[in-house]
Amino acid sequence: MDTRKQQIMVSPDASQIKQYEQMLESLSNETFSAVPHRSYKFLANVSTNMELDKVLQYGFDGIGLYRTEMIFMNADRPLTLQEQYEIYSEAIHKFKDKSICFRTFDIGDDKQLSYARAYKKGIENYIYNKSLFETQIQALIKANHYNHLQIMFPMIASHDEFVFLKNWVKDIQKNLQDESSIKMGIMLETKEALERISEFRDVDFISIGTNDLILSIYHIHRDLQTTEMKQYLHDLIFKLKQVVEFCDASGIGLSICGELASIEPALREFMKIGVKNYSVAAPAIKVLNHIYKEFH
Ligand code: PEP
Ligand code: MG
Predict the structure, then answer these.
(1) Residue nearest (by alpha carbon) to ligand 1 atom 6
(2) What are phi and psi of 129, to 5 degrees?
(3) What is the distance in A from the centroid of ligand 2 to the CA of 107?
(4) pTM surpassing 0.85?
(5) Which residues pair with 65 in a beta bridge?
(6) Each residue of 21-36: pLDDT tens digit?
């Protein structure tokens, strides 16, 4: 493999590598004997394949959120189908016996690409960057080696948007003459989707993105959400309790993948309302284990 390709395929930029190394260093003396969490799933949020071995080592049950836009942002041109196939395949092979959920590229705001225009976060990015979306989906489908592919759409604002994207993925799959099983779900991270949650009966799963959801409902930027938590936590929990009840009644898998899932007081509240699946940055396994033990 030539150096250029290797760089595009697996490596984040220098500052990301440094940040990641620092994070690992701070963890080097920790042990993460996973607690026996039975009906709970502790999942990890990742942005590169570099993080996968640590996630396995810490005993996570899988990847709850693979932020694929980071792969796109680390390149200066659209990645080819083959390049993406190799990245997704590597991750899927590593998580053969665990779950792995890829979020389709979520660009907009501070996440920009040098080679494609980003629209306001959401479905427009796929409609107006059609070939980027289709190539990503093709690569994911081809990499579905164990029939356990999960695809998640970000910033969904209505049920129609979900149906549109689901049908688009199905068409792509049909064109590839592929019959593998694919689960498709949404990130619940807009006020509009939350208000009409009962329409989403046909999604395979829902993952609550608290970072964008809190911004959408309470207009509080993600950087302030921990310090400002008192302002909104009570109300948010009240709203999310209804989501838990809806998902339980409809047999829809529910997880939380926003930052709040690793903030102790919030996590306690999520456990109280019956959320069983959490997806957090790798170091936060400590917080999950700690709070879980308080409850069991
Ligand atoms: C979220 O919005 O909570 C989320 C997990 O997505 P991101 O942080 O990538 O916007
Ligand atoms: Mg988000």
Answers:
(1) 209
(2) -120, 55
(3) 10
(4) yes
(5) 45
(6) 565 555 554 555 555 6
